[in-house]
Structures are given as C-alpha cells and as structure tokens.
Amino acid sequence: MRRLFISHSSHDDGFVRGIQQAFGNFKQDVWIDSRELRGGDPLWQDIKKGIEEASAYAVLVSTDALQSKWVGKELRHALKVQKQRGKDKFPVIPLSLNGTKLGVLEELFRKEPIYITVSSVAGGIDAAIDPILIALGERAPSEISPAPQPKAEALEELVLELKDLRFYEQDGVRRASADAQLVYEPGRPGCREVESTQNWRFVAPLGPIEAQELRWYLEKFAVWPSEYFRNRAHKVEENLVKWGHLLYEAAFPEAYTTNVKEAWAQIDDAARRRFSVYVKAALQVGAPATDVLAAQEAATLLLGLPWELLHDGEGFLFQGAKPTRVRRRLPNTRALSISVVAAPIRVLLITARPEDEGCGYIDHRGISAIGAKVSLCAGAVHEKATALSGPGVCFCRTVGQ
Q: How many Å from the N-terminal Cα to the C-terminal Cα in the chain?
C-alpha cells in the first residue's frame, strides 16, 4: 500500500482529516502528524521518518500554512528526499487550498510547481480525489471520464400558462389576474400536447388576508404552537381545503379544461406527475411604466399563491396514490448549461411535531438515524408545515427549471 504524507497547518486539521478519510476508501494510507504523533514523541525525528517512509508527499498550501515554520521545514526535507529518489519515485504535490499559492516557498522548487486546486466548500475534497490519484500515479488520466448527465425520467406535466398580467378590481377588492391557458405535456415519446379549448381570465381567488393567515400558520405557529393561538390555527386548518378548492376551480374551469383533465386522467398510475405555474410578466415593447410595474407585482402575487394546496374536491393533489408535485416557472431568456447532479446531495428531513399531550419529546436525531422519510428536491426552496393534524408536509417550489 502506498503512503502519502500530508504537511499542513494545525488550523487545517479538519480538512486534512477529510482527505485522509476519503483516501481510505481507495486503500491509500495517509500520514498526518496531528493523528500519528503522541505527546512525548521526538517530534522532528518522527516527522522526518514519516516523510522518508512515505511513497509521496503533499503540502496543503493555505494562509495558515504559510505562517507555519513546520510546513516550510517539512517541505524542504521532502524535496531533499525527492532529489535522492527522483520525481517519479517520490512525487511532491502542492495542494492549493482555495487558491492559495506557495509564495516565497516556490523558490525551493527548481521550477514553478503544478498545483492541484482543492476547496473547503462542500464537495471540495471529493472533487480533488481524481487529480491527486493521477499525480500519485495511482490512476491514469484516461481513466477519468466526465461526470455523466443523469438520464431524465419521463414526466407527465400540466402547465398553467399565465400572461397579460394586470389587476382586477370588484367591490373594492383588488386581485391579480392573467390570461390563462392549461396545457398537458405528455412525458411519453410520440404523444402530442393537449391544450384547453379556450383561454380564460384567471383571477386569484385568494387575497392578502388569506396569504397572511397561511404564512403565519406555516412560518410562525408551526415553529411555536402556543395554546393562545390554537383557535386561530384551527380556523386556518379548516380553511385549507376550502382555499385549495377555490384555487383548483380557478385553475381548472370545467368549461375550458375538461379535455385536458380527461387526457391527464389516462396517465399510467406509475407515472411521475408535475403541475407547473408558468408566469410571463413581460409586456409589449413600449408599454407604460405603470403597466410594467403592475404586471411585475401581479406576477409576484400569482407565483406566491399556495398552489400546493390544490384540492379537486376529493383530496390534495400532492397527496394520495398519484401525487403531483408543484413548481413555479418564469421565462428563461439566457442560454444556461445543464447542471450535472453530483455529490454532495443535501437532504431535507422534516418530522412532525407531536401534539398529543400524552406523548413525550421525541428526539429528531434518533428518527433520522433509523431512516425516516425525507423530501429531496434539487435546487428547491422548501416551506414546511409541521402542524397539519397529521404527518409532516413539505411544500416544494422550484423556480425556472
């Protein structure tokens, strides 16, 4: 087994331990003085012995390392060993942490060294593994293939397109409105889209009062469910179905969307489903500035509606045997590269808060350790409701995907 000696500042112990652990998965032994030496050891003699017994040497170059006399001393000895054995037999590898260079220590090398960039951000160690293995001669450059783009799974989608945004006022009530069209986009190859038979004027069925109550319930009461506000919370809970049904009727009017809903109902039970709200706030060139500002305000309000509450009269769309997730979209006016999903993957774990007085405190760390249900959405913003008289709920919003 090859052995790598890593010279570093004690301030970078945590990062270097991460490298050591990562290389253990590749059966590479890593020697770091903060782990190997014990109190009372003859420090410099053991460090020199560790360098000489290693197969390769790496120096983690950081702002703290440049202030350490030990790092410079160890690097000088490693270059001395390299001169005796040869570069192929004993590679000396500078690891540039977050772009830090060797500075005056570069003069110890015969020519400017080739750095391997490492990063302290999440995933930085994993990204540096392949370049380090190549530098050690443990892996050929040809063995490294670009990270593959995950194959997209078929996704059945309903898209509510909203454009020509403006405000509708009646009886002193001001609501955001838009020209609406519902489109079913099949995920199966060869299937054509199905559009609503006619556009209609969508008027937001919920206003600022409902939005304020829902926001209070999700963001404040869920965090601190005080008994003083229990009645207010129950009123919100009783209105969830009502609000969801009003939103459903406004987004799926029978007169214009029956054909789309019939096509949607024929989807295979195992298919993945998504409902997207696609808001186009741009107006024609030359539109008055007041109209442009009103359209932007209306877009914000329409995107902010609680679409996750959509209720068809029988149940919420995000629940049941055929759950439908929700996303919000804005037009994309730039050419963007496709992101490759790679480690680390961040998992949002949501657990319900027990409301039964007879139930004691449950440590959420224990629940996560045994593999509780998780909700995972890449690039998503999550709003959680933990007091919906049942299991925890994750409302997932993904904008612009």
A: 46
